[in-house]
Specification:
Blueprint (H helix, E strand, L loop, with lengths): L5 E6 L2 H5 L2 E2 L3 E8 L2 E5 L2 E5 L4 E4 L4 E7 L4 E7 L1 H7 L4 H10 L2 E2 L3 H20 L4 H22 L11 H17 L6 H8 L3 H12 L3 H19 L4 H7 L5 H12 L3 H6 L3
Helix pairs in contact: 2-5, 4-5, 6-7, 6-8, 10-11
Length: 271
Amino acid sequence: MVIQRATLTESDLTRWQDEGMLLEDGCLIYCVSGDAVLTVNFDTWTFTRRSVLILFPGDMVEVHSATDDFKVQMLRYSASLLREASLQLEQTVYSLLRKDRCRGASPLVEDIVSQIFELLKNYQEVCPDSFNQIVLLQLKAFFLGFHNYLLRNPHEVQPEEGSERINELFSRFMETIMEHYKESREVAFYAARLHISPKYLFNISLAKTGRSPKTIIDHYVIMQLKLLLRTSTESIKQIAWDYHFNDDSFFCRYFKSHTGLSPQQFRKGVV
C-alpha cells in the first residue's frame, strides 16, 4: 500500500546547515524572515524573505549560510503524493521548476504560496485527519496553475547561466545518476548513457560546478547511503550487494574513505 503523507512545520533548517541532506520527500518552502544561501544539486540559490523554494525527492540540499533570524514555513509531502498532485504534467513541471526552483521576484507566486500556507495551517489544526488529502488538492491546483502561468509568461522563466547544451547535458547527467546510482559509480558508465565521451562529461561538470563528475557521483551515492543507514535496518552485506560493491569490505572502505566513519559507526551515531 502506497502511503501518502504531508506535514506543515516552521524551521530554521539547522539540520541542513550541519550536513547536507538528500530528500526522500518533496518540499514547498516559504521564507518567513531572514535570508540564506543554499546549494541544491550543486546549483546555488539565494533565499530571501517571501521567496519560494521548490524541492523534489532525490534533491541534495545544503544551507551554507543563514542569518540569525532565518526562518521558513515548510510543507513536506511524500513522493507518492507529489506524483499524484502533478497529474500528467509531472515531467514538464519538474523540468520547468528545477531550472527556476527559487522564486524570489514573483509577487504573484509569493502571494499564492503564502495564502496556501495560511490555509493549510488552519486545516492542519481543524481537520488533521483530512490534511493529506487537502494538501494533495492544494498541490494539484498549485502545479497546474504554475505550469500554465509559466507557459503564458515565458519571460518569467529565469535563464540559466552557460550554454543551453551544457545545461541540458548536466541536467541529464544528474537525472541519470538519480536513476542508476546503485548500479555504477564510474564516469564512463554515465558518459555512455549520455552518448558523450568521459572527457566531455568532465568538461561539462567542471563548467557547471567546478567539480569532477566522479566527485559528483560519489557525493550522491554517499548521500543515498547515509539516508539508507539512518532509516533502514538492512544489513551491511545486503546494502553492499544492492549497490553493486564486490563485497561488504570494499563497501566499508569506500564509505569510510568519503566520510571518515565505517557504515557501522555512522549507523550507531559514532563521531
